[in-house]
Amino acid sequence: MMASATAGEDGHFKLSETSVLKINKGDITKWFIDGSSDAIVNPANPRMLGGGGADGAIHRAAGPELKEACYKVPEVQPGIRCPTGEARITPGFKLPASHVIHTVGPIYDSDKDPKGSLRNAYKNCLTVAKENNIKYIAFPSISCGVYGYPYEEAATVALSTIKEFANDIKEVHFVLFADDIYDIWTKKAKELL
Question: On the chain, which terminus has fewer CB atoms closer than 10 Å, C or N?
């Protein structure tokens, strides 16, 4: 499907000959495709032990096993299991999706290069997905909550990075909770894809 043909009416956009982007409103903790080669992205903090917003919701839905698995991820520095822009993978446990890819987006006002850090977060999630034979991945709007990333700029970075690095991923989904973020992501996808 070509983006121009759908005009975003069904939220589907072609990324490449083998990859499609789908933008949906909803709860990322309920998203899945096949329960074996799918992953949701958790906008984590560097400790990876749960937090607020989507991170907290994902940890609650996955059950205590997720926190235990995250705790076993080696620290690269004291208290840091996943530095900003990097990604780590765990099983999904009680989530419908088979895996969780944890990434840490930038705090917009304090990161020296928020655009580069956000780009790395998306790119590294896709890299980890490919390394683990994940064919379907669902992202939230990384850093758009308490980390304060402006929605339009975040959408531009997210969509352009996914367009560039999504090869070998059959479907890339954005599962967005808020109407305003969904509207901005859809508008930007029509412009960029």
Answer: N
Catalytic residue status for 109 = no
Which among 174, 37, 175 has a CA at the least distance from the CA of 98?
37
Task: Classify residue 34 as exposed, middle or buried by CB count within 10 Å of its CB (0-12, 13-18, 19+).
Answer: exposed
For residue 49, how many C-alpha atoms fall within 13 Å in the half-sphere facing its CB?
9
3-state helix, strand, coil in the chain (%, to 5): 35, 20, 45
Q: How confident is the model at residue 10 (pLDDT cuts 50, 70, 90)?
A: confident
Q: What count of other Cβ atoms lies within 10 Å of the Cβ of residue 10?
A: 10
Q: What is residue 11's predicted lDDT score, i.e. its pLDDT?
A: 85
- pLDDT tens-digit map of 41-67: 999 999 999 999 999 999 999 999 999
Cα separation, 80 vs 93, in Å, equals 23
Give me the number of domains the chain comprises.
1
CATH number, domain of 185, equals 3.40.220.10
Range of the domain at 51: 3-192
